[in-house]
Amino acid sequence: MQRLQNISKRTLAALMFFTRLPFWRFCQVERVYFERVVPLWPLAGWLTGGVLALTVWLSQLAALPTGVAVALALSMRCLLTGALHEDGFADFCDGFGGGTSRERTLAIMKDSHIGTYGVLGLLLYVLLIWNLLTELLEAGLSPLALLAVDALAKGLSSTIIYFLPYARTEADAKNRLVYEQTPWTERLLSLVLAIIPVAACLMFASDAAPTLAQWLLVLPMPICGCALLFLWMHRRIQGYTGDCCGATFIIVETLLYLSLCLFA
Predict the structure, then answer these.
(1) Domain residue ranges in the chain
(2) Of the N and C termini of the chain, which has fewer Cβ atoms inside 10 Å?
């Protein structure tokens, strides 16, 4: 019973941390569960990616233009997450774009104001992701693939805590939270949670959906992107922050869609 309660509280902690839905109304979740939410990040991707896919599917049923469907889907995800990852990406762009030292980079990322690099980064991201998704959906990509990409991008991004230490102290962290390292069993669980939506896409999506061989061709670019990002973070700030997690997701998601355009 205690084990089941721990699992349910960790699941609620992940959904509360990565979305803005009022899961806190169901029960009180202690701080220790929030320190171990990263392996369950792909599970939150089932919800956020599901909202993307559902919005696109409903828009297609309503015969809305593909570009409008994509804009609505991205807007719905931002509302669901409170633009958590986009905010982290903007801070990352400001810090790594304007910082000249480790201390300066961390200080800029902690500043709540957005700068030139952050604005440009968000504009480029929105332009890229909107064009990529519009092109893919008009080419026949199943909306279910959006769920798969969201969960897969979160699964790849969650590996950041396995390769880098946290760059701040707990007192200096924005949310006063430092993620714990997790055992191999939980890392495996995270991988499974990231892969299940891809398997569902292979089983239930239309003939125009990517095949297994195409999914395998899609993976090298985002994996290499992750590795290069982690090396850059280690070089600049000798670790990662919460903003780095959000930026990694945004960049990896974009690389996944770019790879789908190129190879699928």
Answers:
(1) 30-167+181-263
(2) N
